[in-house]
Design brief:
- With 363 residues, the protein is α/β, with parallel strands linked by helices.
- Helix content is 35%, strand content 24%.
- The chain has helices at 8-12, 33-42, 88-97, 112-121, 165-181, 199-211, 238-244, 254-268, 306-319, 324-338, 349-360, and strands at residues 47-52, 54-67, 74-87, 101-109, 130-134, 140-147, 150-157, 186-190, 216-219, 233-234, 272-276, 282-285, 290-293.
- The strands form two sheets. Strands 5-4-1-8-9-10-11-12-13 form a nine-stranded mixed β-sheet, with helices on both faces. A four-stranded mixed β-sheet has the order 3-2-6-7.
- Strand 2 (54-67) and strand 3 form a beta hairpin.
- The radius of gyration is 21 Å and the shape is globular.
Length: 363
């Protein structure tokens, strides 16, 4: 159990502590420096199984100095190109960056971009582990054109149909074998709605993980939103939660959000519901109580990949035994940090630890 401050004045003695203030002071928890360092060190002990849609995030950097005479569109003079791991692979990158061991499970195409993806994957895994190659899919590629740190356009190349029966069975069996072979400390479903995650896969892997008492965390999308039952932590953004639950709710109505959160958790058998609220921070519910952690003010350059960072950090904090408020606060901080960078990048462990200490440490 992490320690509480001795008195209310400790919470007010530095501006950083206001992010943890709630209506009930007894529930405020401030983590000290030593405890945070031990917790972050413990991340290296964890194997995290990540299941989901992977992709290549391609970037084209250039300069825009004139408009095309052929159409009212900017002409981008290409200066540099780069490819990075994206989608569920970005979660694996974040897990790796935080010191833990990711085991990434997905299906890619038997194509040039698929090989490029595998080459990039060697930066975080010595083996392919859970990657299945299929002749019936294209490897997803998202190409972003950037000028002066601003996105101009994004071009997507992808297939979104669900896995064919034989590939689905092969993929599920392979994931099961990995869970049996390795000591898994958490399972993450990173769903980008590209078809790799199916209802059958969710049901079988969730049942297996629950049977082994392995925490299950979900970053959902619309197609299978209602299929993620009996999981440990469910992390939609506000738009996904409202649309997925067919609600009419204002983002700033935190009490109303808690009412709907309790209903959803009871219906779905979800232990913790973590909802990202963009400029309003994050909300987390334990069914009986909730916390709203406001956003930390930052210079936002790009929100792409922030959700991947939030679920990654939340996974490790949960595996380390942190409570709901601590999970939400540190995850919120991590998501804000990566938004300051104009490309999708993983969180840096030392920076997050340093800023977490500033946010939490007792004085």
């Amino acid at each position: 159990m992490l320690k509480k401050p001795k008195d209310f004045q400790q919470c007010l003695s530095t501006n950083e502590f206001v992010y943890l203030c709630s209506n009930n002071f007894e529930n405020r928890i401030i983590v000290n420096k030593i405890e945070l360092e031990k917790t972050f060190d413990s991340f290296s002990d964890y194997n995290v199984l990540i299941i989901g849609d992977v992709m290549v995030d391609a970037y084209v950097w250039g300069k825009v100095e004139r408009i095309s005479p052929e159409a009212p569109v900017p002409i981008v003079s290409c200066v540099n190109r780069e490819s990075r791991l994206g989608g569920a692979a970005n979660v694996a990158l974040n897990i790796k960056s935080m010191g833990a061991n990711p085991i990434l499970c997905s299906v890619i195409g038997n194509d040039e971009k698929g090989q490029e993806f595998l080459n990039l994957l060697t930066n975080i895994q010595d083996e392919q582990y859970g990657i299945v190659v299929s002749d019936h899919r294209r490897t997803t590629v998202k190409t972003r054109f950037i000028s002066d740190n601003q996105h101009i356009i994004r071009v997507d190349e992808e297939d979104t149909h669900e896995l064919a029966d034989e590939i689905e069975i092969e993929f599920i069996d392979h994931i099961k074998s990995l869970i049996d072979k390795h000591q898994i400390h958490a399972v993450v479903f990173e769903d980008y709605d590209k078809g790799v995650i199916t209802k059958k896969l969710i049901e079988e892997i969730t049942s297996l993980a629950n049977g082994k008492n392995i925490p299950i965390l979900v970053d959902p999308k619309k197609r299978h939103y209602s299929d993620y039952k009996n999981v440990t932590l469910f992390k939609p953004n506000f738009k996904e939660f409202v649309e997925g639950s067919n609600l009419k709710l204002e983002k700033g109505d935190i009490e109303g959000l808690f009412t709907e959160a309790k209903n959803f958790q009871n219906k779905m058998g979800i232990n913790k519901l973590l909802i990202t609220l963009s400029e309003l921070g994050v909300f987390i519910s334990n069914e009986n109580t909730y916390e709203h952690i406001p956003a930390v003010v930052r210079e936002i350059a790009d929100v792409s990949g922030a959700g991947d960072t939030v679920i990654s950090v939340a996974t490790l904090c949960l595996a380390a035994g942190m409570n709901a408020k601590e999970i939400a606060a540190i995850s919120n901080l991590a998501g804000g940090i990566v938004c300051e960078i104009p490309v999708v990048v993983p969180i840096e462990k030392e920076q997050l630890l340093k800023e977490s200490i500033k946010l939490f440490a007792q004085v």
